[in-house]
Structures are given as structure tokens and as C-alpha cells.
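#help-structures
NK: newbie question, is this the right format to request a structure? protein is SPOR domain-containing protein
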Amino acid sequence: MVAKHIKSLLYEHDCVIIPGFGGLITRYVPAVVHPVKHTITPPSKRVAFNEKLVLTDGLLINTIAYYNGITAVEAQQMVAAFVTQANNQLKTDNRFELSDIGIFRYNAAHRLEFEYKAGDNLLEASFGLPEISARPVRAEESVVLRSLQNKRAQDIPQNGTKFKRRLRRVYSTAAGLIIAGLTGSALYLLSLQTEYNLSSLNPLAQFNNATINNQATASDYTADYVPVTEEERLATYQNLLLNAGIATDLEADFIASTSEINDSTWQHESAALAETTEGVADQVVEEEAIVEPVLTITEKTGRFYIITGGYSRLQNAETGRDDVRENGHDGKVLTPLRGSRLFRVSAADFATAEEAQAAMNEYRKTYGNSIWVLNN
């Protein structure tokens, strides 16, 4: 039963610690192309063992307790019995097999070694993908296929070729007739319009029309008409204004109105500038008041954290934290404690253990039943 829970946890976590025995660590293996067998293996996870990771992180014990409906103490006793059985079997047979995961043995220096046994693909992104066999294409096969295609092309009867040529000629003739008919119809419709004259495209006709228009304009005046120059017209207006005494008053009124407009414009611009300055100052104060949230916990705080997973690398832990924050929760990364190498990701933290346990059911709806509480 303990081995079954260990395998299920390896699907979701990078590290699963067996208290008093060691830790199983997974690493990503990319797709592999075998040059001899001509097979393509999908990406997967490969499991390694570290016998120094013996300090429990509570993941395995809490998972067993939840799924079996027992207390944490009883789950810890089950794990201890499993470790005792594994050690006894190693002493007697020098071999202990963890089903669908790997085999443990003692080497000549009496150190525990682990041999990974490839079974089910532990990578969720590649779950269910089989190994693909690819047969290479040989050069002689392409030559044979090309000769068969040429032979089939020669066997096709040539009767349809003449018919296609005739059909293509009919299409070309019909298209030409349709285009000619449409062009003639368009010209006929244009000729029916009273305001449109096809002869207007002639540049000589346009020149003649311009000459006729100029002559008509000149004929509007009488024969004894003498035009007045611009200088004579301006001098006559100025004399009339001076005689009436209006020019001086108009200049004074113009200067007074101009000064009033300038004063009012300056007042409006000053008020607008003051309002803009105040708005910018308020915006700067609001930006300075924004405080960035704490995303990484590097020291003990004494609070109780709901842990969603443990990771052996900081990059994977930060990815898990981003997923938690996308779900709308206060995701944080807790750096490894003394005696541990795991980066833990939390979804929430509370001041007391009672508050954290009371909120567990709500967070299990999103992160499953493998979450647990850590007092940091």
C-alpha cells in the first residue's frame, strides 16, 4: 500500500521522501530518437535515489492518512513498518524491489544503490504516448516508386487530351465574346448620358472650350469700361476714413480688445497648468505607496503554511507558485529548511494550526488531497 502511494505522488511531485530510508527524485528526460532501432521515445521522468534525504517533510504520511481515513500517527507507523520490511529484505536477499519504480541493492562498499526500472511514463504531459517506430526510406525504393508512376502515366489513354484542348478553346472564345459585349454595353450607356461627351477626351477640344469661356467672360463688360488699379482703390478708402475721423478710434479699440484677450488667456493657461501639476503630484504619491507582495520566504516566520508541493529545483517551485497565484491564492516559495533540499510552494498561511486545518477542505477543492500543513 505504501509503494502504491509513493508511485502516485511521483506523478505530481519532483521529490518523495521515505522517512528513515531515503528520497526518490525525478528529473525530466527529453524525447529520444534511437539511431539503430529507429524508434522515437516520448519525453518522460527518470527516477533517482538519494539515501541522505531521510528527514520527513510530511507529504507521504499525510497522503496515506487522508486516503485511508487514519491519523497521522498511524500513517507514520505504516511507513516505519514498510521501511523495516525493506531493510530486512535487503539484509537477507541483498535486493528490494519497489514495484513499477526500481530495485535497491547493496554494493561492495555496503552502500545502497538504486536501479531505475522503466515502466509507466511518470510525466503527466506525455501520459499515454507510446513509443513510435519509424522505418527509413531507402533510395532504391524511391526509384521503384518513380518507375511505377511513369508506367501508370503511360498506360492512361490519350483520348481525353484532345477533348480537353477543344474545351479550352471554347472557353477562351466565350470569354473574349463576353468581355467585348460588356465593353460595348458600357460605352453605349455612357453615350446616353447628356452630361458626358466622349469628345472631351480630345485635348484640342479642351483648349477650344477654355478659349470660348475666356471670351465669354470678357464680353460681360461694356466697351467703355476702364478697370481701377489696386493702389487707387486703397488710397480712396484711406482718405474716406481720415475725413470721417474713424481710423484712430478703430486702432484704439483693437489694441484694448487684444490686451484683454491676452490677459484672460494667460489666466486660463495658468489655472490649467496648476491643475495638471497637482494631478501629476498625486499620481506620483500613489505610485510610491504601492508595495510589491512577498513571493519568497527565506527565514522562519512561525506561521502555518498550506503546502501544495515540494520541488528539488527553485525554477520548478517558482512555476508552481505562479500557477497558485493564477488561481487567485497567495502563492509563496519557502526555501529549504535545515536538513532538507526541497523548495516548498504554499497557497496560504495562517497564524495558528487550527485556522490552517479549518481551511484545508476549501483548498483541497483546487489542489487535491495531497496538500498538507507546515509550521515554518
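mod (FA): yep, format's fine, and the C-alpha cells are attached above. The longest strand covers residues 22-29.
NK: thank you!
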